[in-house]
Design brief:
The protein is of the alpha/beta class. 51% of the residues lie in helices and 13% in strands. Strand 4, helix 4 and strand 5 form a beta-alpha-beta unit. It is globular. It starts with 8 loop residues before the first strand and ends with a helix.
Length: 171
């Protein structure tokens, strides 16, 4: 086991399933204390239990939930050193006859607003520890056509642009 994250506190959004759960497991395996943040609190608790982490309910489209996840990291684990803003959803629709405004609102609020609100929430906690790192999950859909879910692709392209714009300033 690589122990290069011992003593570090990591927040992972979308951590109850898939990539997020795998990241939580990998980070904990490297010694990190992991905040498993997800809207599916039952699954988040299962992952947190498996990795010795802390589960928090977090709908990333909610400013209050993002702030609460950071507060949990700071108050219960002592701070925040790394944030992995990973939560994401697809729409399963396009812009033709299959367009669904509610699915569009959800994909935009999770995939684009989520990183914006997450970045805003983690910034003060990372600075309080003297800096830190943020990883924001995008997708190959940001770089290549994704005809079956263009709205997902658009939000992931927005995430890529956001990170590229912030990186020089936040470095």
């Amino acid at each position: 086991m690589a122990a290069d994250l011992v003593g570090k506190v990591v927040l992972v959004t979308g951590a109850a399933h898939g990539i997020g759960a795998a990241l939580a497991e990998r980070l904990a395996g490297r010694g990190a204390s992991v905040v498993v943040a997800d809207v599916d609190v039952v699954a988040a608790e299962e992952v947190a239990s498996a990795v010795g982490g802390l589960a928090v309910r977090c709908d990333v489209s909610s400013p209050a939930d993002n702030e609460a996840a950071v507060t949990a990291a700071v108050e219960r684990l002592g701070g925040l050193d790394l944030a992995v803003l990973n939560a994401g959803v697809a729409t399963g629709c396009g812009l033709g006859d299959d367009f669904d405004p509610q699915r569009y609102d959800r994909v935009r609020s999770v995939n684009l607003d989520g990183p914006v609100l997450g970045l805003h929430a983690v910034w003060p906690a990372l600075r309080a520890r003297g800096g830190g790192d943020v990883i924001v999950t995008s997708s190959m859909a940001a770089l290549a056509p994704m005809a079956d879910d263009p709205l997902y692709a658009a939000t992931k392209a927005g995430v890529l642009a956001l990170v590229r714009a912030l990186a020089p300033t936040w470095a």
